[in-house]
Amino acid sequence: MSDNLLRVQPIRNGTVIDHIKASRGEKVLDILNLSGSDTTISLLINVQSKIQKRKDIIKIEDRELDEIEIEKLALLSPDAIVNIIRNYSVADKIKIEIPEFISEIVHCPNENCICNNERGVSTNFKLLNKENLQIKCTYCGRKMDEENINFI
Questions:
Q1: Mean pLDDT value across the chain
Q2: Percentages of the chain per state (helix, strand, coil), in multiples of 5
């Protein structure tokens, strides 16, 4: 592949999310509430990759992701890499990982779960399987796989 085929303007400051699972870029934009923002965003879908065959890339100008956004990203695309750009250079490179405990970012599907019915109780999940993403609610024990995760 020629270097001239992929031309994306570099950003001065912001975030580049690389190695997103192919065709997950739009979902990442939605989950991170980026699609309605005033920030300039570049989304590349199904880009050729030496490591993954295909990947998505997101460039977000003048904005850095916070810890909660990085945790959400980890559940959507655990092999993604977050690059913090400052003055056109990579200032920090974050290899994200799914945390062992996930709090306040995933909704429990069990309507009777205490986290859905008690005021002030936040959702808490334990990671069961990192390879074939599976998490379990620490209150009711409901298990969820990747396709059934609903973000708060």
A1: 88
A2: 20, 40, 45
User: Which H helix or E strand runs over 127?
Assistant: strand 124-129
Cα separation, 145 vs 134, in Å, equals: 4
End-to-end alpha carbon distance in the chain: 40
Q: Is residue 13 within 8 Å of residue 87, measured between CB atoms?
A: yes
> Is 46 in contact with 58 (CB distance < 8 Å)?
no
Per-residue pLDDT tens digits for 45-72: 888 888 778 999 999 999 999 888 999 9
How many CB atoms are located within 10 Å of the residue 4 CB? Answer: 6
Give dist(CA 15, CA 61) in Å, integer.
7
pTM for this model (two decimals) = 0.82
Q: Is 146 helix (H, G, I), strand (E, B) or coil?
A: helix
Residue 135 CB neighbours (<10 A): 23
Which of 2-11, 56-65, 131-140 is predicted least confidently? 2-11
pLDDT of residue 120: 87
By three-state DSSP, how is residue 69 classified?
A: helix
C-alpha dihedral over 124, 127, 132, 137, to 10 degrees? -30
Question: What is the model's pLDDT at position 136?
Answer: 97
